[in-house]
């Protein structure tokens, strides 16, 4: 994963796991004098070791919003 991220973004990321399951990936930036974000390497590789499980993300859809019309007298 580190190699793929470095190839895509030019910097290494911090990859964190919880019990062998991918939980988050952090990319770090610094801000230069012009206010532009510049990617930098992560300070640590993260907490993932060995094989990493990447479970399918479940997307829960919130119920549709509804409007109650107000009568105007």
From TrEMBL:
Gene3D superfamilies in the record: Ribonuclease T2-like
UniProt-listed InterPro entries: RNase_T2-like_sf
Molecular function in Gene Ontology: ribonuclease T2 activity; RNA binding
Protein known as: Uncharacterized protein
Organism of derivation: Linnemannia gamsii
């Amino acid at each position: 994963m580190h190699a793929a991220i470095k190839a895509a973004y030019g910097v290494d990321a911090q990859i964190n796991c919880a019990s062998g399951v991918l939980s988050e990936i952090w990319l770090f930036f610094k801000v230069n004098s012009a206010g532009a974000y510049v990617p930098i390497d992560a300070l640590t590789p993260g907490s993932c070791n060995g094989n990493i499980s990447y479970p399918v993300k479940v997307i829960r859809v919130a119920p549709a919003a509804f409007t109650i019309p107000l009568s105007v007298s």
